[in-house]
Description:
It is built from three helices and no strands. By secondary structure, the protein is an all-alpha fold. The chain has one domain (2-44). The longest helix has 15 residues, at 30-44.
Amino acid sequence: AGRLYAQAMARHAAPPSPGQAHLAERPGGASQEASSVLERLAARA
């Protein structure tokens, strides 16, 4: 969620907070983030 927020702020020309700047620069989209979450949940089960 933080990555999506930072990317949206960058698209609207609003600078992200210093703690989130790296999130806007990282490649990958929401599907990649969702896949990572699903993998971690599957590992718990």
